[in-house]
Amino acid sequence: MQKLGSHLIVEYYGCNPKILNDLHSIKNHLLIAADKIGATVIDEKFHQFSPQGVSGAVILAESHISIHTWPEYGYAAMDFFTCGVKCDPYQGFTYLKQVFESKLEEVKDLVRGLPDDHSYH
Amino acid sequence: MQKLGSHLIVEYYGCNPKILNDLHSIKNHLLIAADKIGATVIDEKFHQFSPQGVSGAVILAESHISIHTWPEYGYAAMDFFTCGVKCDPYQGFTYLKQVFESKLEEVKDLVRGLPDDHSYH
Fold first, then answer.
1. Which of A27, A61, B28, B113 lies 20 to 30 A from B45 at CA?
2. Does residue B47 have an active-site annotation?
């Protein structure tokens, strides 16, 4: 595959449920994470669910960061999708691991891009 | 894993580059795709890049849909993340395959949720 983007798919488990239910805190920390990744924030959109949970996306010049939280399970599902070579999504992963007080993480590191076989053209 | 969400990771190849560079068309089609999936749209955010390319995210009551396009390669990287049991993300996948005039697709179908081992608590 001709790599155009890196996509970290992250599950944070055993997190602090208060933080996972605080939209303003999550938004603030995701913007800090974007900076640590070396990405440029273009826009963001977050939503507070009732009775609990937060969803959000940060649009980057280099793709996006998204989050969905289940405070009742201490669980956050995150995606760090970055294109180009200057970003390091693991910097954001490590920062948010600390912020969320995560006790266990699962990470999948996917390559996004073009197939080696271009015969579909 | 205790499933909380379905995450389709989709690469569309050989697409119509004009469509992939048309923000308003992409936004409109992603909102239709959300409806076909059976999801409820909460908000959306799209961005047009210069000289080309569109990024966007649709925040759903059931998680999100995101897109990043490279018109110069006829390539769109998409994510359909839905939680709950009432949504069928493949309906959105199939709809957008037709809309983008994709000639080749690659799909990864991931489960998002809690680990079987809860000893981290």
1. B113
2. no
For residue A120, the chain B residues in CB contact (below 8 A) are 13-14, 103-104
Following DSSP, what letter does each residue of A51-69 receive, concatenated? Answer: SS-EEEEEEETTEEEEEEE
Residue of A nearest to B58 (CA): A57
Q: Which among B5, B57, B108 has CB closest to A59?
A: B57
Q: What is the pLDDT of residue B99?
A: 98
Share of chain B above pLDDT 70, in %: 99
Question: Taking CB atoms and an 8 Å limit, are A57 and B66 in contact across chains?
Answer: yes
Closest CA to B75 of B10, B11, B9: B11
A24 C-beta neighbours (distance < 10 Å), count: 10
Domains annotated for chain B, with CATH where assigned, are 2-114 (3.60.90.10)
C-alpha to C-alpha distance for A3 and A112, rounded to whole angstroms: 6
pTM attached to this predicted model = 0.96
CA distance linking residue A66 with residue A79, whole number of Å = 5
Tens digits of per-residue pLDDT, B17-63? Answer: 999 999 999 999 999 999 999 999 999 999 999 999 999 999 999 99
ipTM greater than cut 0.85: yes
Q: Are A58 and A30 in contact (CB under 8 A)?
A: yes
8 Å CB contact of B4 and A45:
no
